[in-house]
Write a structure and sequence with these properties.
Number of helices: 14
Bound molecules: flavin-adenine dinucleotide
CATH topology of the largest domain: FAD/NAD(P)-binding domain
CATH superfamily of the largest domain: FAD/NAD(P)-binding domain
Number of strands: 18
Length: about 450
């Protein structure tokens, strides 16, 4: 078939691009290799329940009347009413380090007050840092790379506070170890700390279903369980697109959301622009624990806890398995109005993990490694909430191997390549990338990335 635009991948960026293009009357089709849409933020069914793969929270939560907030801009781009997202704001979250805790709420005020109360000497520096972040053009098309750690040192003199600021930001969007690109830091700091977090009440399945319904109403086509296996390129032009079932297509434009190096691998001609982004390295293990009662009973009353057991936050891959020194702990039922959701009695835990180690395990050893990791994570959870281990009825776990299997991302990396490609350009005149490797992450970020690239190709 011939299309105006063919989109590779029905993750959030592919769906965002699809809605935008279909709205403007383009003949557009999305090809998705997996059985279900959603990519890194998908869902699966177990015992007739819909379970989220990755959802902790929608970041970039902002009041409805803030017209310049990314969330509200996105809704305008997609022509969606805000009520369709059914957002439940966080009550509070916290950053928990040895000897210090900082509470986070929606909007900067709560967090700023916490910083002032715990680190009074740092108030002026923190304000100046926030001004610098607000003024940074983090999506510049010719970005200057600066170390986030080095910039933070210019404003904050207490090492513990610097580590506490880096912890949630790195955990939710840093594709590299130890340090972070300052532009990427700004994007994440704004979305998490200056703006805030909310949970779509019914989770990802209903959000994705609503988005795809909109896409289809506008005339967009979606092919599930049929990925793209080859982009036949001729002299810097995608001349033909071949799908997994052998179907051959042509398109004026191809938008790929499957990653920079993953897209390069589909092309029959070299793609230096995509190859220089590099392959994603950071791996994570995500575990869901189902309890026989609310986690609040054990004192877990925050929505999300970003925890380091050591004063210097370590964001790097462990030699083996998983890192035990820092975790994200999420309680989905603690978001406002979410005590009635099926996941209300669950706790999700995220830790950094070595992709190479997990990928190399044989099926038997893999099963055993998951069991041992779950046992260790239960003990870690029990450190934070004594007694909770005895209330755990069941658990499920995703490793880099699972992510690779279901999304095809090299190394099972969630945050993609360390070097982003803000223009989305490639070495083919009719091929663009969108999504994680373009530079926007998360639910709002990846939907927005799809819209931005769709706007550029129209
Ligand atoms: C465990 C976990 C927890 C997370 N928690 C949150 C959270 O709480 N809040 C938040 O905002 N974000 C969260 N994220 C991040 C968020 O999910 C991602 O940033 C976002 O979903 C990325 O979307 P994307 O469209 O760029 O990429 P993807 O979701 O990876 O989409 C790419 C799609 O392309 C498909 N594909 C790959 N190769 C091909 C091919 N050759 N042909 C056809 N299709 C192909 C894949 O199957 C996939 O569906 C989390 C991610 C994970 C994994």
């Amino acid at each position: 078939m011939h299309l105006d635009v063919l989109i590779i991948g029905a993750g959030l960026s592919g769906i965002g691009a699809g809605i935008r293009l279909a709205y403007f009357g383009k003949k557009v089709a999305i090809f998705e290799r997996h059985r279900l849409p959603g990519g890194l933020n998908s869902y699966y069914h177990r015992n007739s329940l819909s379970i989220d793969v990755g959802l902790h929270a929608l970041t970039n939560y902002a009041p409805e009347d803030d017209r310049s907030a990314p969330l509200n801009k996105l809704l305008r781009q997609l022509r969606l009413k805000r009520s369709t997202l059914d957002l439940c704001p966080q009550t509070f979250s916290k950053i928990l380090f040895p000897g210090a805790t900082l509470r986070m709420g929606n909007g900067l005020d709560v967090f700023r007050a916490e910083v002032s109360a715990r680190f009074p000497k740092e108030t002026a520096g923190f304000d100046a840092l926030c001004r610098r972040i607000a003024e940074t053009d983090s999506m510049s098309l010719s970005p200057v790379r600066e170390s986030a750690r080095a910039v933070l040192e210019q404003y904050i003199s207490t090492p513990l506070l610097r580590e506490m600021l880096l912890c949630p930001v790195m955990f939710y969007g840093n594709p590299q170890m130890d340090d972070m690109d300052f532009n990427q830091f700004c994007i994440m700091f704004q979305s998490l700390i200056m703006e805030g977090m909310a949970r779509p009440h019914d989770g990802m399945e209903s959000l994705i279903t609503m988005l795809l319904q909109r896409y289809r109403e506008l005339g967009g086509e979606l092919y599930l369980e049929n990925g793209i296996s080859k982009l036949r390129c001729e002299n810097g032009h995608v001349a033909e697109i071949i799908d997994d079932q052998g179907g051959r297509h042509t398109a004026d434009m191809v938008i790929s959301s499957c990653g920079a190096s993953e897209t390069a691998a589909l092309c029959t001609e070299e793609q230096p622009t995509l190859q220089q982004c590099g392959v994603g390295q950071m791996g994570f293990v995500e575990t869901m624990f189902n309890l026989d009662r609310s986690p609040k009973v054990f004192g877990l009353d925050a929505c999300i806890i970003y925890r380091s057991r050591i004063p210097q936050f370590r964001f790097r891959l462990p030699q083996e398995g998983i890192d035990f020194d820092s975790q994200i702990i999420c309680m989905p039922g603690n978001f406002q109005g979410c005590d009635d959701i099926p996941a209300a009695n669950s706790v999700r835990m995220t830790v950094t993990a070595s992709p190479r180690w997990w990928m190399a395990l044989s099926p038997d050893k893999y099963k055993e490694a998951k069991r041992k990791a779950a046992e260790s994570l239960m003990n870690l959870l029990d450190e934070v909430a004594p007694g909770i281990k005895g209330a755990i009825k069941a658990w499920d776990m995703f490793t880099p191997k699972t992510i690779y299997r279901f999304t095809g991302h090299c190394n099972g990396a969630i945050y993609g390549s360390p070097y982003k490609n803000p223009t989305g350009m490639t070495n083919c005149d009719n091929l663009r990338i969108c999504g994680t490797d373009q530079g926007f992450l998360g639910i709002v970020g990846s939907l927005m990335s799809g819209c931005v690239i769709a706007n550029r190709v129209m």
